[in-house]
Amino acid sequence: MTEAFVALGSNLGDARAQVQEAFAALARLPDTRLLAQSPLYLTPPWGVLDQPPFVNAVARLDTTLSPHALLDALLAIERAAGRVRDGQRWGPRILDLDVLYMDGVSLSDERLQLPHPRIGERAFVLLPLNDLAPSLELPGQGRVADLLARVDTTGLERLP
User: Per the database record, which ranges form the 7,8-dihydro-6-hydroxymethylpterin-pyrophosphokinase domain (predicted)?
Assistant: First the structure.
């Protein structure tokens, strides 16, 4: 089994319910165990600012899926939730799932980069990731808790 972390986000429809259902879908993946889920956070939009706030979280998995097989499974969960990828980056979405990190995997191709190259810039990823793995060392980026200390978390709110 390989430890993996997946970011979850939604800002359309019932975003909170979308993220909760995505956790449940991750728990149903073959050859995968959902080990932990972070609290949910209400976060301001990033990239394209003229859109609703997001609900963001992170899942910790153990999986025997390859990185690309995990990515394909995440894309299938997004499609099942109603997401249509139209090429727009950072815009509103019913569900967004991203592989952030897989233990021992360094990968960069046209479909996937691991560890995710922009973790250190994104408070909406670092805050929930820190809840699960503050001492996780991301190769080439640093320790999660240290990265979190360097980003602005203004406007991020932990949901009850």
Answer: 89-100
Over the chain (160 residues), the average pLDDT of each successive run of 10 is 97 96 98 98 88 97 98 97 77 92 96 95 97 97 97 96
Query: Which class is 2-158 in CATH?
Result: alpha beta
Euclidean distance between CA atoms 88 and 147, whole angstroms = 27
Helix then strand then coil, in percent of the chain rounded to 5, is 30, 30, 40
The structural domains of the chain, with segments of one domain joined by +, span: 2-158
Helices (H), 10-143: 15-27, 67-81, 123-132
Residues carrying an active site annotation: 83, 93, 96, 98
- Which residue, 65, 79, 75, 67, is CA-closest to 30? 65
Q: Considering only CA atoms, which of 157, 158, 160, 132 is closest in space to residue 145?
A: 132
